[in-house]
Every structure is written in C-alpha cells, then in structure tokens.
Design goal:
homodimer, alpha/beta, 434 Repressor (Amino-terminal Domain), Rossmann fold, 3 domains, 6-stranded parallel beta sheet, 4-stranded parallel beta sheet, 14 strands, DNA-binding
Chain lengths: 364, 364
DNA sequence: TTGTATGCGTTATCAG
DNA sequence: CTGATAACGCATACAA
C-alpha cells in the first residue's frame, strides 16, 4: 500500500496562539504545490506545470502528480493567483439592500453574464447611505475587484473626487447624481412615467396624483416629468397639490401615509413611485375600506413579483431588471477587454392588471 | 509648487496586448507602497510602517508619508495582505437564490454580525442544484474564505466526502441531509408544523391538507410530522389523501396546482409548506372565485414581508430569519476563534392574520 | 523534460 | 529610527 492511499497522512495542521484565551488553536492548513512536490519528489515548478496540463511535462509524471494532487485534496489558492496575475476575476457590485427583491433580479442578470466568462460577483451593501456607499466602493477596490458596478449612486462632486482613486472601470446602474458619468445604464424613467400617467388619463381620470420618494431624486424627478408630459399631451391641467412625497422610513410607509393626502386632494387615481409604495398605499386603502380600483386607481413602477400576488393585482410599469444587470455586466467586461462601450437606456413597458380601471367618482 | 500637488503625476499606466484585437490596451495600475517609497526617497518597509502608525518611525516621516499616500491615492491590496496573513476576512455564504427574499434576510443577519468584526461576505449561488452546490463551495474555498456558511445543503455521502477537502469551518443552516453534521443551525420545523396544524384544528377544521415541496425534503418531512403530532394531540383522524406535493417548477406553481386536489379531497383548511406556496394557492383561489378564508383557510410558513401585503393577509409561522443569519455567522466566527460551539434550534411563532378563520362549510 | 530564479504587494524579523 | 531580506503560493522566463 502506497502512502498516498492514506489521505489523512497529508493532512497538515498548524497551531496559533490565541492570546485572549492563552490556548493554542489547531487549524488545518491548505495543501500547496510545494507539499505535493515534496511528496512526489519533484520541484514545485513541475507540479505547477503538470497540474495545468503543460505538454512539456512527461505524461507519466503529469498523471502521477495529478492523482497525487487529487488524493491530497489540493485546491489552488485564488489569492496567490490573483497577486501574481493582477486579476481577481471578480466584479464588485454595490446595492442598497441585499434583501430587496428589486436588486436581487439585477444581480442575477449580472451573474448570468459574468458566469459565462468565469467571473464571480462580490456584493457590497450600501444600505442607501451616501457615506457608506463610498466606503463600500473603497473596500471593493481594496479587494482588487476587476471592475465595479454601482446601483443608484449619488454621484455628486464629492463622490466624483473620491472615485478618482479607483483605478478600475466603474459602471453605474440608475445613477441618481446629476453630473455626467460615462459608463451608465438606466431605464427610460421619463417614458415610463409618461406611460403610467397616459394609461390613467386614457381611463378618463383627471385628478391623478403622484406619490414620490426622497431617496432616488433623479428617477423621482424623471418619472414626474413623464407624468407632466402625459398631461400636456392630453391637454389636462395639473394640480401641484396632487404631487407630493409623504414622510416615512420605507416605501411602504410612505405609501400608507399618502392616503390621507390623496383623499384631501380628491384624487381618483394615483401613480406611485414604485410597486412597494403602491402596495403600502393599497393596504392602507383596504384598512380604510376604500375600494381599489373603483374609488382609487393605483399604478406602480418596477413590476416586482409581488405585484402579481397582491389583491387587486397591481398595474405597473415593467422595468427589465434582469436585462439591466446583464447589460451592466456586459459593459463592465467589455471595458476590461478594451472595447468601446456606449451608455444605454432600456425601455419600460406597461403591464395592465387589476388595480386600475375607468374613473368612477370623486373620493368623498 | 511641489510635484505632489499634481496627483496626475503619480498616475501610472500599463499596457497589455489584447491578442484578439491586436491592440495595446492601456490600463491604470494601483499605487503600491514601493511607488510611495520611491517618491518619498525611503525604503518600502518604512512606508509600510508609517502607514500602519508604527511608533518606531519618526513622526515627521510618518506625517510626510501619510500625506503622500493620500495624494497618490494609495489603496492597500487586500490580495497581498491575504497572501501574507493567510486570512481573507471573508466568510463565504451559499444560498440557493440571491433574489429570494427568504435568503436575503438571512444574509442580512449574517452581515450584521460579520461587519462588527470586520468580516465581509462572499455570496455563492447554488440555484438549488446539488452538483452546483459543491462546485460553489469549492470555489469559495479556492478563494480562501475563512469559513463557509451553507443554507439548505443536501449533505449525503457524496457531499460528505467532497467536503473533506475543505479545510475551513463549515456551518449549515437548515441542513436538508440526513447524516449528522456538527455545526448546524435550524428552526424547529416540527414544532412550527404542529403550531400551524393546531391553529387550524383550534378553529374547528377537521379536514386539513398539507401541501408539500420536493426540494427541501427534511423540512418538508418535519413540518408534516408536526402536522401529524397536532392531529394526534387533538385526537383527530388524518386522511392521507390530504397530504400531497403537487407538480410544478416553483413554490407558486405548486400552490396553484394544489387547488384542484384540495377541492377533490374536500379540505376546509390547508397548511402550505411555505408562504410562497400559500400565495400561489391563494391567487388560484381568487381566480376560481373561492373565498379565503371563508371556504378555505390557508396558513403558510416563513412570514415573508410579502405575506403582510397579500389579500387576505396571510396567517403564517414566523421564522426568525435575521437571527438565523446572525446565529450562523456568530458560530462561524466562534469556530475561527477556537471557541466551543453548539448546534442550535431556533423557535418559530404563529402569526395570525386574515387567511384563517373558523370552519364554515365543506367545499363544493 | 525538469530545475532555478524572480516577482506580484505586503509585513515581520533581523541588522545597522 | 531605518534598511535589507525573506516569506506567503503561484506561474513564467531562463538555464540545464
């Protein structure tokens, strides 16, 4: 029986002094090509070559080393590889919340593209905090990700300066800052907003409210702009009392808080900044016994899975989130390959469900 | 004007031949301590010490170097650090889907604990594929994460063997395999299932169905076991026709598919494997005009945010997902510190909402 | 066909 | 106080 039939023989253990507890902690240590080389009685260079299938190496040696590596449980160190190659095959991605299904879909799209080119994604969580956002980007760069994709960045002047030190390509999804930034992907918020309002106008509504959000200023402004364009195209006068942003710490809370204001303003329909806002509003309507869409038509934005399952199901503007992620990742990888890239604006689409209907009566 | 007032002077660029396109791609290269040392006219060791605030270094030199590093936009390389220290300060986490809000909350809990000890999380996506699961774990280990947390692993014999080569601590959340695995966290599925069924029994229901899932065998079995215990405790006979797992590619689809069977079996109430299954079922009920809870009481499991917003809002068994993540991460970090850890089973809780009510009549 | 030397960026050990 | 040297794991140019 050859010794390498007993894998436990290769198991190496190291000890470290844990000063807090004053104990010696034993830990298993990864197998390296040097260890394999020692066992095989060759130089580590040979092992390196053999494992990578270099044809210069004798076929027998190669086979022997490969088997040995397998038996010893060798797993190459991506850390060492990255240091040497100056490449991590990792794309950093900054989202405001990992548990928000909105971003989940975008990340899945990005991963779909990345995986096919052997890249992985390292997620950073900004928790919608502008300070933390730049800290997360810094951390990703510290880890030497090959490129960075950021969702909803507030690129103001300060950010712009901070981003200068980042020497890898940066792609922005839904940039909320005002300055120009070269590598950007977004959806057509203006057209989306226009479609939403036009849909309600087409149903005969004349007092259509817009419930906004404070944390995504640019999207908010653009969707509102679309709302205004639709009104102008339909030659319907607008009432500024109908456009407002309620107080609240979440989209749902702001949606709930909007109801009172909506009744006061005698809205018959409402365009909510996004689905989560609409869902919050609708649950308030239900509690107050206000029938949707009969007394109040509601339209959202995003087309989250959720919107299919609420009652009534939510009419909304679909945003191609998976594709957004795919496109952003494609752009990042193209930049790494030195290709020319172009900023992109993806189209939205109206999805009619049950929460909107023809105007019926004025509330109250 | 001193040269280091012109940061662009430090900007270094490298070129690489892109053979596909036969062009020379220019790319910016990160600043290293060596470059700083060259500019400052000292040894790189000194720079390293100065930047880390080593008191041995002259205060003036330290100040000068720190400022220079700032001006040159120095960001230390975590890759080099990791190679040197044999530690990445990264915990790998395997989830079946990144966009599933169920896991999002768990990851947030884990991150909450990790962040406080300067650890980051690297997410791997197994897409509920047993083959891919082990590939993802391998990849995480390749990257030399310090520990790995896996959700819903099917630890069978093959897996067990594959996991042997992984030389870092592994913590399992909701292990779906049968073998013993030392570092595990789970919720009390049996007790959760019992509470769900007991709730329905307490409302007078006697024909209670259980709609299962094929992809989480252990949880499924345990929740069903709880269901059985509740029936025994209440001395209510069970009908095996009431417990089944419909065909379908998603929880929602299986929920929808369950309705027909439920009517045939004359169920007056149903305990669904999870909220997503319940939501699918409820939307089928709505389409078929079957009122919930009047004609069919529905209870789910998990307590996703979603369940608050469907109509009627969903009665369910709360699963402490955030805490699950926190606990798992705590266990992983404790293992790294050589502390003793114990497997844990977290309690569930009944959350009564609108989708369950006293028994009314037999369907049809 | 295989071995030797070097470097990736950083810190630690040992000299000066 | 500061500098020279080695090491972490790996791949490659160059020698043998």
């Amino acid at each position: 029986m050859r010794p390498w039939n007993a894998p436990s023989k290769w198991e190496r253990v190291n000890t470290k002094l844990v000063s807090d507890l004053n104990i010696h902690l034993e830990y298993r240590v990864p197998v390296t090509i040097k260890q394999i080389a020692a066992v095989a009685g060759v130089c580590h260079t040979t092992v390196s070559r053999a494992l990578r299938g270099n044809p210069m190496i004798n076929a027998n040696t190669t086979a022997r080393i490969k088997q040995l590596a397998e038996e010893m449980g060798y797993v190459p160190s991506a850390v060492a590889l990255s240091l040497r190659s100056q490449k991590t095959f990792t794309i950093g991605m900054v989202v405001t919340s990992i548990s928000d299904p909105f971003f989940g879909r975008i990340v899945e799209g990005a991963e779909d593209v990345a995986r096919k080119e052997q890249y992985s994604i390292f997620l950073g969580n900004s928790r919608n905090d502008s300070e933390r956002e730049i800290a997360v980007v810094d951390d990703l760069y510290r880890r030497r990700v090959d490129a960075i994709i950021i969702t909803s960045l507030w690129v103001d002047n300060q950010h712009h300066k901070d981003l200068e030190r980042i020497k890898v390509p940066i792609v922005l999804i839904h940039n909320q800052g005002d300055g120009e930034f070269t590598n950007s992907i977004a959806v057509d918020d203006v057209e989306g907003g226009r479609m939403a309002a036009a849909h309600l106008l087409g149903l005969g509504h004349r007092r259509i409210a817009f419930v906004g959000t404070p944390d995504q200023p640019k999207s908010n402004r653009q969707r509102l702009e679309g709302y205004q364009i639709a009104h102008q195209q339909a030659s319907v006068a607008m009432d500024s009392a109908l456009c407002f942003t309620p107080e609240g710490n979440s989209y749902e809370q702001r949606g709930r808080a909007a109801l009172k204001h909506l009744r006061q303003a005698q809205a018959t329909a409402v365009f909510c900044y996004n689905d989560r806002t609409a869902v919050g509003l609708m649950s308030a309507c239900r509690e107050e016994g206000l029938p949707v869409p009969k007394e109040l038509a509601v339209i959202g934005f995003d087309d989250l899975e959720l919107s299919r399952y609420v009652t009534p199901s939510l009419t909304t503007i679909n945003q191609p989130r998976f594709k957004l992620g795919q496109t952003a990742m494609r752009m990042a990888l193209d930049l790494l390959e030195g290709k020319e890239v172009q900023d992109q604006v993806l189209p939205c689409a109206l999805v009619e469900r049950e929460s909107t209907a023809a105007v019926h009566a004025i509330i109250d």
